[in-house]
Design brief:
The chain has 311 residues and is mainly alpha-helical. The chain is 56% helix and 5% strand. The protein folds into three domains: 88 residues, no CATH class; 85 residues, Cytochrome c-like domain (Cytochrome Bc1 Complex, Chain D, domain 2, Orthogonal Bundle), CATH 1.10.760; 96 residues, Orthogonal Bundle (Cytochrome Bc1 Complex, Chain D, domain 2). Its cofactor is heme c.
Length: 311
């Protein structure tokens, strides 16, 4: 708040308080010509009379005390512009104190899990339960309550990881986020191979995943275009590059859909997927707990895997 606005607020507050005091003082006085307290001209139901009696003194004193209390309150809690108040109270300070108190409680709760490996935490039932709760509160908006993702959001329950599924890479994804950029290649490819270039490359991509025969006409046409443009990120064999977040095109999974139309849309217009960084929001220990929950989804214990297969 600027000095000018601060002065304006102070003047406005004092004017209102003075106005209340003056109004109270003015209305409680009797003036020449006023009816006597016993006089009345209003009678209802024969015996109900309205007199001109003043308010009780205790009531008037109560009003004055209210004004005095208001002044004291504003002086103590800082109600005069930028004046901080004698009590140095502020809503921001109270919020900070509450946050510090709750942070201390959280720190005590999470202290046993600090610095532990994600795979180690994944074997701790309590740690996984905490990770599940944090996931539901923070990550489920994008990845879904079951962590199976959606169009544009990866499924965290399988073994397909565009940025790598090791403990360190999972933790890095949570802490510092990821940005996956697929450039727009439609214009470039059409300039190289004509109007069917994007269709041909998309078909070849589907052939890499076994969705269409390798000898398909469009797939054969797209192979050369793929090797001229796409290999830089996805590799000659289509296995991708986890350092770049370039997906493996041979596993049959496409985050934005593996239909021909969807793949063509990706090639034509590109994609820009963002995983926000959670280092500031969660801190390392809570990120490790979330990582342990995610790890447990894609790396279930051997006993749990056998049980699921038997069912």
């Amino acid at each position: 708040m600027s000095t000018g606005w601060s002065i304006y607020v102070i003047v406005l507050v004092l004017a209102n308080l003075a106005g209340c005091w003056a109004l109270l003082s003015w209305t409680k006085r009797r003036r020449p010509g006023d009816p006597k307290p016993e006089d009345t001209t209003h009678v209802w139901d024969g015996d109900i009379r309205e007199y001109n009696k003043p308010l009780p003194r205790w009531w008037i004193i109560g009003f004055y005390l209210t004004i005095v209390f208001s002044v004291g309150y504003l002086v103590w809690y800082g109600g005069f512009g930028t004046f901080p108040g004698l009590g140095k109270w502020s809503s921001a300070g109270e919020h900070a104190a509450d946050k510090a108190r709750h942070d201390a409680i959280l720190a005590e709760t999470f202290a046993p899990y600090a610095g532990r490996a994600i795979s180690d935490l994944a074997g701790d039932e309590r740690a996984v339960e905490l990770g599940r709760a944090i996931f539901a509160n923070t990550c489920a908006t994008c990845h879904g309550s079951s962590a199976q993702g959606a169009i544009g959001y990866p499924n965290l329950t399988d073994d397909i990881w565009h940025w790598g599924g090791s403990e360190d890479r999972i933790l890095a994804s949570i802490l510092d986020g990821r940005q996956g950029v697929m450039p727009e290649w439609g214009t470039v490819l059409n300039g190289m191979g004509g109007e069917n270039a994007v269709l041909s490359v998309a078909t070849y991509v589907r052939a890499l995943a076994g969705e269409v025969p390798a000898n398909d006409y469009f797939a054969a046409q797209g192979k050369g275009l793929y090797e001229g443009v796409c290999v830089a990120c996805h590799g000659i064999d289509g296995k991708g590059n986890q350092d770049l977040g370039a997906p493996d095109l041979t596993d049959g999974y496409a985050m934005y859909g593996n239909s021909l139309e969807s793949i063509m849309e990706t090639i034509n217009r590109g994609r820009h997927g963002v995983m926000p960084a959670h280092r500031e929001l969660l801190g390392e220990t809570r990120s490790r707990l979330v990582g342990s929950y995610v790890w447990s989804l894609s790396n279930p214990p051997a006993g749990a895997t056998r049980q699921a297969e038997n069912q």
